[in-house]
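[Backbone geometry]
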Amino acid sequence: MISEETKELVDQGIMLPLMEEFYTIQGEGFHKGTAAYFIRIGGCDVGCHWCDVKESWNAELHPPTHIGQIVENALKYSKTIVITGGEPLTWDMTQLTQSLKDKGASIHIETSGAYALSGIWDWICLSPKKIKLPTEEIYPLAHELKVIVFNKHDLKFAEEQAAKVSENCILYLQPEWSNREKMIPLIVDYVMKNPQWKVSLQTHKYLNIP
C-alpha cells in the first residue's frame, strides 16, 4: 500500500509505476530495427485477451519510481526513448516527457489511445483496441496506426480506424503473435490488394530479444 504522499506524486506524474526498462532494438512498425530505450509503465484496463504483457495490467504490482531516476537511467543508453505499457496514458506523461525533451531525447509512445493524450511526443504509434476505443483527439495526431489482427474481422475494424487518422499517418496491419501462422497469409493478401497498408511483424520475437 503506497502512502498518500506517493499517490499524490503518481497522480501528478512525478512518480510512475515502472514495470521495466531496457535497451533493445525496436521490433515493430515504422522504427523497426532501430536501437531504442524502452520504458514500460504499469497499469492498463483495456484488457486485450491476447496481450503478451498481462503482468503490466495491475499498476499496484509495479513500484512508483521518480521520473528523475527513469530519465537518468534511459539517457545512459539512448536518446531515442519509447514509452509503452500497459497503457501509458493512464497516467499524466507531461512531467516525464518534458524532462526527457529537456535532455534532447526523441520520445515515442505506443498507446491504445483510450485515455486523454498528455505529454510531448515526437512519434505517436496508435494501436486501437475494439474493447476501449481511442479518444477522438488522438486520431489526427497519430504518425502511425498499428492494428493487431487476430481474426479476419479485425480487417474491417482496421479500415474503420484508418478512416479517422490523417492522410499522412502510416498504416500497419500486424498479426497477433499466437495466431500469426493463420493471419500472415490473410494480411499479405489484403495488403497486396490494398497497398495503402503495410505489414508489421514482431521482429524482436524472431530475433529473440526483448
Summary: The chain has a mean pLDDT of 95.
